[in-house]
Design goal:
Citrate_synthase; mainly alpha; citrate synthase (unknown stereospecificity); Citrate_synth-like_lrg_a-sub; citrate synthase activity; three-stranded antiparallel sheet; Citrate_synthase_sf
Length: 351
Amino acid sequence: MTEPDPPPQSALPIAPISAIDPDLPSLAYRGHDLATLVGRVGFQDVWALLVDGRTGSALPPAEPFPLPVRTGDARVDVQSALAQLAPVWAFRPMLDLDAARLRQDLARASVMALSFVAQSARGDDLPAVPQREVMLAPTTAERFLVRWRGEADPAHARALDACWVAVAEHGISPSTRAARLMAGTGADAAACLAGAVAATSGPLAAGAAARAFALVTEADRTGDPAGVVAHALTRGPLMGFGHPSYRGRDPRATLLHAECARIGAPLLEAAEAVEAAGTAALAERGVPYTANVMFWAGILLDAAGVAPRMFTAMYSCGRGAGWSAHLLAAHAELLARTGRDGTSGGAPTVG
C-alpha cells in the first residue's frame, strides 16, 4: 500500500500568528520559537513566515518613491508617507480586495515603510542613493542601510535583523489593535499601517526605548546606575522595565541582550548595571520586573549606529510584519462579516 501524497503546502494547517507562554516565558511566531529566529533568520523571511505561515516568499525590494514630506521626525515622516501611498498607487479599500491583492499591497507598503525611514534618516542634505546601488544589496536590512548610508556594514545589518525580528509580532498589542480596528472599517492597507505607526508613538509604547536609553547613557556618564534609577522612580514608572505578558523576564529582552553581548555593544556594561539596579529597586517595591525588549532594543540599535530619535520608527519597521499578518486575518473576518466571502451577511457600518 503506497503512502498518500502530502497535501500542498497551501493546504497545510497554519499555526497561530504568535503564541505567548507567560510562564516559561517564551514567544513563538507561527509555531517557531523566537530563539530559533533572532540572529539566525533575516527579517524578510520572518515577514513571510508571519504573513504566509512559511518562509520562501520574502519581501520584495522597495520601489523608487521619494519621501514626500520631511519633518525631522522619522516616525512622523513614515506615518505621513504611508498614508500618501494609497492615492499614488491606487490602493483600494480592503473590503473590495481579495486576499492575494491585499497581501501584495501590504508587502509593497511594508517595504516602503523601511525605505521612508531610511530616506528620513539620510536627510535632505545628501543626494539619494541610486536605486541600482540599493538593489545590489541581498537582504532587506542591507538595502535599508545602503539607502540610508550608501553602504551596509554586515555587523549593523545583523543587528537590525535581530532587532526587527524580535519586535516583529506580539499578539494584540495596542498598535496591532489599532490596525485591526481600522481594517474592520474596510480601510486600505496603507491607511491601516499608518494608523498602527501612530499608535507606537507614546512613551508607554515604542517611545519607551528612547527613555530607557537615556537612563543608560546617564548611568554611563555618572557611574551611578542605582542613583539614576532612584531618581527616575521619583518621576514616574521606570521605562523599559516589565511586560504584562510575562511572569519572568521578557524572552525578547534575553535574546537582544545576547546579541548585544555578541557584538560588544558600547553601552553593554552600563545597560547591565541599570537593569540590575532597576530590578533591585523594583523588587524592593514588590514589583518583579526586569528590563524588557524596548530596553535592550535601544542598546542594540545604538550599537548599529541608530540615534535614539529614530528608535520608534525603527520599531515600526519591524512590527510591520506582525501588522501585515493581522491585517490579513482581519480582512478574512471583514469579508465573512459582510458576506463578501460567499456566505450570507450584512454590511453594518461601524462609525
